[in-house]
Fold each of these.
Amino acid sequence: MKRISGQLYIFYSLVLLLYISNVFIENRALEYIIGTLAIPMLFISFHGAANLFRILGLLFISAGVGMFIYAGLPVVELPFYMTSTMPLLAFLTILPWMNGVVRAGRFDRRINQLMKANVSDLGKLYTRSSFTSYILVAFINLSALPLAQGVLLKNLSNMKKQLRDSFVTRTTLRAFAVALAWSPMEIMVAITVDATGVSYLTYLPWLLLCSLIVLFIDLLWGYMAFRKHGYQPAIESEQFFHPKQVAVQIMKLFFALSIFLALVVSIGNVTGLDFILTVTLVILPFAIGWSFLMKRWKTFKVIGWVTWKERTNGMQNFVVLFLSLAFFSSSLNETPFLDLIQQPFLGAAEYPLIILFLIQFTYLAMSMIGVHPVATVGVLIEVLPPLYEIINPMSIGMVLVTGALATACAGTYGITVTMTSMNTKQNPYRITLRNLPFALTYGAVGVIMGYLLL
């Protein structure tokens, strides 16, 4: 199995490449072959998946089998019910190349210098490290967490563990949660854009505004909480720190992101492809072109390949989750059970604020028992479409994004909280308790903005 797990990237890539090709070919026989390949792809991935994802996968498969039989669907058509989430897997597979080009350009190192420059107290360090984490997360996503947490843990190693853990937990996880709200490379944003039919450019200013409002609230919150603590880094800061050089690197990153967004929107408008698929197709050629412009092609080639291969070989959790979810949601659509699940939402149709809060608390409650936000949204996007005629789909979309990302800093079994728990050697439930007030605040801001957009 170790030998197989080291070569999974070949199998995964083959299946996903066939799927993307068939988006343009639209061949029914090829779609059946892809669905057939998805079945061994799912079962092979079970071996390397975490227990939590195995349980989720088994629950979705069991429920899907029950509904498949109830609907009286022919077994021979089973492969057609396995492919609806393939675009999400393709998206996650190609994403590491963007991470690779940022690292090849050494943008992460330059920006990380912000956290190493001297400040007089932890309140000021909180604002600086939150801002730094925010920028890093916006461009390299999950890879920013160990990078930012590693620097802070070293610099705060001479402080009491409880204070250090509280500081690192709050500043990095909260910045992570708000930074992704507007990123086109965040899967929850991509899912929401396609599910609601509202363009990314329409969402962008409102998601960015929500992100900045919540970031400002947390910066003020953190500054007031930690300013009474003096700060002397355990490791000497670099002697030569040039704020202008760091500012230039940040400007370059945002300029590159602006070009990337322009390409995604332009290509999407011309081709009519879904947002998720458009981003997937643009990432690799954009990253290659950017590496040539920076004259970092050789470095990018090495870093990108190693990062991509490692991440793709480690995708078992998401393969199990997404393929089992595809089978579940596709089977659900063939039964009357979907109408039953929709009833609570339709019953509150005259009270849109209740619906928005219901979506928010559904995310939070499900995250507490280990259900990944993608699994939750996978069900919600099947349930909510009838409400689009009554409630502005953009209002629902705002809460779908903010509600999901609010769990990134408080979901006890989520990957970000688990990673932070391992890095800081603290109980994940303690991390949840520390960040729960922020998660509720974040969700409330998202709901208010969604309500104002009605």
Amino acid sequence: MPRPSARRALPVALLSALALAVPAAASAAPEPGFETLTPACVPAPPVQHPGCGTAYRGAPLPSGTPDQVVELSGADRFATAAAIAEHGFPEADVAVLVSGEDRHLVDALSAAPLARSLAAPLLLATRDDVPAATAAYLRDHAVRSVVVVGGDDALSALTPKRLQTLGVTDVQRIAGADRYATSRAVAAFLPAATHGWAASGEDAHLVDALAAAGPAARLGEPLVLVADDDPIPAGDALRALGVTTTTVAGGPEGVFPEALAPLPTPHRAAGEDRYGTAAAVAVEAVDAGLPAEDVVLAPGLTGHLVDALASGPLGRATLLVGEDQSSFDVVEAWFDTYGAGRVTAVGAVSISG
């Protein structure tokens, strides 16, 4: 497709202030209007959902003025996820709980579309604890139903009991024999869709799935992980949901060329590196209807990817920020092309002027 004409560039002062940091928690100024979130209750949710057929208030809508900046962060990854939850899901009755430990992030990569379909945030825990920020969100919102994604090695068998002490009465776990089976099990709870997303499940390429999570969530489409040595189950899972076309996030070093054939009419969204791939995925999302001027900036460095994970249910096009110039070039090119309406920086990404 032809490149859209440039409309408005991000101010140089704002772009030059973009950095990876550990900012203090911040909140956006009040904005008129909010998203409306309606739980998808067909197929039946994995937990009892008291809000089937109910409209929930979601995130504030952009005010319409250019160059808005919203920073969502906390003292640690768990508090950052809770801050994102407060922003995007202030009225949630249901939550999705995933591991916030780096070695288990892969189990949660496909959870963003499910969370948004339930009008639910994505909260983080450790294998053996429900951190204070997560517990506070669950208590403050009187959440009674929680979907746990991942096996006992990610979130232990005692997790439901820990949640019950917080007032949660309905806990259901979605897990498969491995990361790929878990992603397919999560996708099975999503409504039918004609388009789906696929990405590598290899540790070195998890960032590609993170870039696709926000668009998949907003569009109500499944995101499954593809095993290069056994891609047929991923294709079968997508077809079972009615998928006829698939966007594969990432290049051939992530999902091998020979692994594409079992997927429904696949095509790639990929760049020269993880930052270019995130931008390519974001372009696909904009072409599918997501607003180009309302984007998330999330950390793209290993060790900070969890912040991008928590922001997936917001359902926004996502650009990744690193420490090298290539990531800043991608961000600058995006705003040169599409302009800057609202920029939401999450976790270790800070924008300060």
Amino acid sequence: MAQTKSASKLRQMLADPEKTVICPGVHDGLTARVALNVGFDALYMTGAGTAASRLGQPDLGLTTVDDMATNAGMIAGLDRSVPVIADADTGFGGPLMVARTTEKYILQGVAAFHIEDQVTTKRCGHLGGKELVDTPTFVARIRAAASARSRMESDIVIIARTDALQSRGYEEAVSRLKAAVEAGADVAFLEGIQTKEQMAQVVKDMAPTPCLLNMVGGGVTPLVNAREAKELGYKIVLWPIAGMTSVYIAMREFCEELKNTGEIKNRYKEDGKIDGGVRDVFELCGLSACVEFDKEMGGASFANGA
């Protein structure tokens, strides 16, 4: 099964002592296509980006399981050889709902997902005022996900995320992560790390469980590069809002140009060709491959070109 292969490939990456998985955050088909074209070997579907792109809303727990799972599945389906790690928020309810969420993510071909310990009306991990469930409730979420994974005979990687650092302190956060690992989580994710010393300490305290590092521009966590993250011992590094903020900046610039000048001037590559023309985007999204497939199957839809 494609979904099993994707998860197994991610597990192989995590088992490789020389490998740190670097994931750009993508939120739709176009940003995912760009990341794939550049050559990343894993992607991250951001929940914040999904809320912004699908709903035009902030990351305040407004997305449903269907919003998230459908988006994750679309991204995972673009290239089944590239594992997709996806945000699953709180699992969207109690143990029954978490199990259903896990099943949906598995069927969508997602390689890994993370579940957190915030209340259902959650918020971005780099905002203030986060409210948490108690440790038994968090552990029940992870246990339900692990049970559903076993029932589905899946290899999907379960990532336990805690947001306890902000309000409960480091020791409580690590205690929650250890309890989650005992319940079936494969990777530990301490959100909202505030110092490089904490980055290093949690890897040591959670060993041998692999740890995930979240690099949020404008957030509370100091930014480190891939080399530094690897030296600290991290196995997965997310840059979750890379796609979202890039689109925001570029779209703002284009809209301001159109509003102020009445036109958008072409951008040019070094070879003098237009950069980002409509055909460039279509080719990125598989235009030639689609035309060729139609031809190979005996179709004539594009016999006169495209």
